[in-house]
Amino acid sequence: MEAAAYKVKNAFDGYKKNEIMTLSPVRLILKLYDYVLLNSRKRDATAVNAGLTQLIAALNFDYKEISLGFFKLYRYCQTESQKGNFEEVEKVISELRAAWAQAFKLS
Questions:
Q1: What is the sign, positive or negative, of the torsion defined by CA atoms of 10, 11, 14, 16?
Q2: 7-57 pLDDT, tens per residue?
Q3: Is residue 46 part of a domain?
Q4: Percentage of the chain with pLDDT > 90?
Q5: What's the structural domain count of the chain?
Q6: What is the pLDDT of residue 104?
Q7: Mean pLDDT over all residues of the chain?
Q8: For the purposes of burial, counting CB atoms within 10 Å of the CB of 16, is it exposed (0-12), middle (13-18) or buried (19 or more)?
Q9: pLDDT at position 5, please?
Q10: Is residue 45 situated within a structural domain?
Q11: With contact defined as beta carbons under 8 Å apart, do 89 and 77 qualify?
């Protein structure tokens, strides 16, 4: 039975990888916000940090003023999650996600 479960997991992982690889940059950012929110609710600081690290890596510093603002918010959220203040992380990321979705008319 373990082999069957392994195959199902591999198929699911492949499906998820394909889904992520075909997302538009805007939808990918929303997916990262969702990932951070989900793991913040689970109080998983390691996963929250990983998601925030990906958001930081996605910043385009050719637009320094805007990127720097996002960078500071993401770093603030990393610090707060390390302190165990997941409610603050959820508040900040929820507001960013809502603004991002509204700006691009997505849900």
A1: negative
A2: 444 444 544 445 555 668 888 999 999 999 999 999 999 999 999 999 999
A3: yes
A4: 67
A5: 1
A6: 82
A7: 85
A8: exposed
A9: 52
A10: yes
A11: yes
Q: Which of 23, 19, 16, 20 is nearest to 106 (CA)?
A: 23
Query: What stretches of 22-85 show up as alpha helix (H) in DSSP?
Result: 25-41, 45-57, 64-82
**Rounded to 5°, angle at Cα 54 from 50 and 86:** 45
CA distance 8 to 2: 10
Q: How many CB atoms lie within 10 A of CB 57?
A: 9
DSSP 2-19: HHHHHHHHHHHHHHHHHH
- Domain range for residue 85? 25-103
* C-alpha span between 79 and 63 (Å, rounded): 24
For the chain, how long is the longest CA-to-CA vector?
54
| Residue 16 covered by a domain | no
Written as one letter, the residue type at 62 is D
- Asked if residue 49 is part of any domain, the answer here is yes
